[in-house]
Specification:
mainly alpha; Rossmann fold; five-stranded parallel sheet
Length: about 350
Amino acid sequence: MPSSTSSSEVVRGGALPKGLLAALVLFFASEHFLWNSPAWLAFCRRYVPPYVASDPLRSSVETRLLPKDGPPPIVLVGSSQIHEGMECEEFEQRFPARPCVNLGIAGGTPLDVLFLTDRIDARGIPKRTIVTGVFPQVMRRAPKAAFTDLRTIRCLYRSGVLFAMTPKEWIDDALFGEIQNLAETLRMKDSLFDMWSVVGEDLQGALRGEMPPQPPRALDLVPAPGRAFFRKHIGDVDPAIAPGRFTPVHELALEEVIAREEDRGNHMVVIDFPTRRGYLTTITPEAISAHKRLVERLAARGGVVLVRADDLPALEDSDFHDFTHLAESGRHKVSARIADLLVKIGG
């Protein structure tokens, strides 16, 4: 006859998997409810701060709030040059029936553009107009864990870059990215800590909408560098800004995005993003040459509307916040020109 001790062990052993399964079902059901709740998404949109760690939450919220029905959205997506340097207001004035969303993220690369447009696909929105930009500094960056999925891994493999990654890069950028995709809350952990730093002192006030919303752009909170900064750095070359191991995967990802939009009959605009006078003296000749080759390939390719820097309005030094980001006046000029271009080509 079995002892009471062994009997209780059997009961506990049988109950544990059921309890674990119930906990997992409850967790993923809560995940689905939370990240599909308009009230929660609107709360996040209002209070997520415009910092680097907040990029996953901000971009996810804006993507999830895009309407599935109605006219195709205008999606501004890319690096911080897009986030800080483009404004939806100009597009909304010319296309009042169409939603516009800015999904620019800090250090955003073509791999990130691929990831974010995949997320829009997952929303069931195949028709859209994509506006992005190319920029020397972003074509060398490693993948970001919070913006990594199976498509990222496939691009790394197809470009041959996967086999050049170190074990640490494998774990930090690829494996951890895939693990984070198991749960949106896990992917958002840093962003949620950022948002808590805003609402934590008066959560009830935030829930009532009494706290002011966060500003949309980080550089609006940072004073522009003075003339002494530019005089000091003109001609000071940063050797790190050069083509690197990850450049081929970004070129492949950009090609995948363009090909997909072309197949669907969507307009896609790629801006050779403008920079302040003197910027080219701060990066390596190799970076300049690689960027020029990329722009020429895009010009020869077709299937994409390429906007060269000299197609944009003349920009003064005062139109830039720093070497690579536009100030408010420059943001208005560039956004208005691109919006006018979309009107001309039929959106």
